[in-house]
């Protein structure tokens, strides 16, 4: 720590009193070290973010942690104004990833000091923090424990997480599976903590993203998946009203602790305050979709595609590899009453090339696959061998990151998709200005719909053959339904569009999920629900549907209840109380599958 500034004023961007048009982006905390403010204006500069802080009179060095997210082009630029004096430095222009940019020396008074972030472009300027120092030593540039401790000390936060209580079960992840697990366990009489890293519940179904839950649903899943008029899910209202449930919103899990093979507690950090808490329980259910607890506990996991011979899967590749489903970014356009200008975006054209098809929009939360402008590019020659299925206006055809590590490249994947959308939008407007001069963005998500991460390994790994053959499992606890849905990454030219898509409805009948797929094979008190259950890549392409994940969640909630009742582990429930588990799960609601609704493509 001797090489770091020992004193100064650290102003985290999330601490600004008025965000203006900037938005808090906390989804890449584990990658770059902190939440940050994002000027997401789709080419229109957003309103200033402002705050006031208390300072002592002095001669301060000023540092700003920012990112030039497209080096050499600098699409996201902003300035910093302190006490109505704008610094000369334009941030986001240094051709570097997240780094501290030096902005010079400024005299600050004793008392109130006003600070303002002024966006110049509307194209995702981003500011993490501002540091005022009496020393000329730069702040820590790395995302590591030393940098975390430095920030914690300057913010006068406790060195260790604060005990936030002990619960009967802790659920991680507030998507459809997590909300289902928390609500079901609470209604069974258990004290439940639900840890969600976003300000909204629902995961890929949340109002931030907007997909609709598919697969085998139930009355409870349908209840919490209803939407308010603003598109937000009813889930939070239901959980807030449940006396046995406690919500920890905007908390990101960053560590977990074990005794032997048993998790005793997890640590989580609040996005806006930096407050760190510890939650303990005898049972944990991971519904994050990312196997978050598995990363911190050493749980056995699976990743990528298994080979055809490994499980005898007809849809698997000949050789195993790390290809997985990528992320998707949704958007919606509109026709304004007058012409709408849009900046020249050469940095986005580098990604989009001459692509000019804006079909596949999210029409509203829960209603995807919408139409949009489509312009045939000059000198276009259709590919006679192209799959006709790929010509439809489907939302999920915008996808990227299938060959990248989703844990360390999330921000890059999101940014690449933003470039693709902005470049395509520019192409449509410039190729046919007579038709699309009035075209404008209505909404572009800044939170990507999450694709595939690691999957847990349970005592059984569900495979394609189990689903096709309707294998009878003695420990079947719920059913799933729907098609095998496999996405294949785009070619070099349009790497943000799927090359092919497999939608195999098999015999269109539900199939059984064994309980052994819902608890970790080597972490004794860890269960999972959602797309990261114990399954192959092919099997997971069906089990991944959100309503299917809700079914897993019902079984894990019932199991957590019985773990408390019998003071045992999930495997103990499997070995000694299986019939009671089936009955308890069934009492939480029978599965419902509306195949016509599920196949709304």
Automatic annotation (TrEMBL):
Gene3D superfamilies recorded = FAD/NAD(P)-binding domain (3.50.50.60)
Highest taxon of the lineage: Eukaryota
Can the keyword Nucleotide-binding be found in this entry's annotation?
no
Q: Which Pfam families match?
A: FAD_oxidored
Keyword terms, alphabetized: 4Fe-4S, Iron, Iron-sulfur, Metal-binding, Oxidoreductase
Annotated InterPro entries: FAD/NAD-bd_sf, HdrA-like
* GO terms for MF: 4 iron, 4 sulfur cluster binding; metal ion binding; oxidoreductase activity
SUPFAM superfamilies assigned:
FAD/NAD(P)-binding domain (SSF51905)
- Under what name is this protein listed? Pyridine nucleotide-disulfide oxidoreductase
Q: What is the lineage of its organism?
A: Eukaryota, Fungi, Dikarya, Ascomycota, Pezizomycotina
Q: Which gene encodes it?
A: sthA
